[in-house]
Amino acid sequence: MVKIAPSILSADFARMEAGVRLAEEAGADYIHCDVMDGRFVPNITFGPKMIRDLRRTTSVPLDVHLMIEEPSRYIEEFAAAGADIISIHLEAERHVQRALSLIRSCGCRAGLVLNPGTPPDALPFLLDDVDLVLLMTVNPGFGGQKLIPAVLPKVRIVRDMIGPRAVELEVDGGVTPKTAALLAGAGADVLVAGSAVFGAPDPAQAVLALREAQ
Ligand code: DX5
Ligand code: ZN
Question: Is the shortest distance between the CB of 174 and ligand 1 below 6 Å?
Answer without folding.
Answer: yes
